[in-house]
Specification:
44% of the residues lie in helices and 20% in strands. It is of the alpha/beta class. It has 2 domains: 123 residues, 3-Layer(aba) Sandwich (Rossmann fold), CATH 3.40.50; 97 residues, Arc Repressor Mutant, subunit A. It has a 5-stranded parallel beta sheet, with helices on both faces. It has a 4-stranded antiparallel beta sheet with strand order 6-7-8-9, with helices on one face. The termini are far apart.
Amino acid sequence: MPRSIAIVEDEPLIRANYVEALTRFGYEVRGYASRPEAEAAFAMRLPELVIIDVGLGDEPEGGFDLCRGLRARAQTLPILFLTARDSDLDVISGLRLGADDYLTKDVSLHQLAARINALFRRIEALRKPAETESAIEHGPLKLEQERMRVTWNGEEVPLTVTEFWMVHTMVRFPGHVKNRDQLMREAQVVVDDATITSHIKRIRKKFLAIDAAFDGVETVHGVGYRWKP
């Protein structure tokens, strides 16, 4: 059985393009033009992954409202924002509401497919027993690669898939500076420097929310970032 994906996008041409492209990648894909239309369908049956635009028709934040409702119903349902809106505020709002990732519409189809694949892998990994886990540990940090899970002092850090791979890149070699290209390659994203910077900011914020004294991620100006050994 192919995995089911729903795309909630108000632009008919964009919606049709994504439905067709992801169907070619082997998924069962349904498209919805508005929040009410998607909610009516999801009340009958939830898909296995949802891709949402932020602005839907006459609702500038309809996607955020949809995400909030979905997350309340299904804690582990993979939710991905795919939108033209790339302000830091929008990204943070989307992730705060429980989205797993936030991509802008200039992302290539192969990157989108890689991200969807990563989200499905994460869900499968979380269902497996943890005994077989290979983990990286540095002081209060524990990173479980198969489950794509990071804890600090035993408390889970709610990282998106992108953020997880960026942390993974740094903690594998503490003290080694990773430049933006290396971070992008590991996270399977192609973004500008400002977007990498905002990902790092959000990673820091999530650790700081758990531990106000956190200073594990160091910026090496003009070069990149490293995990403090």
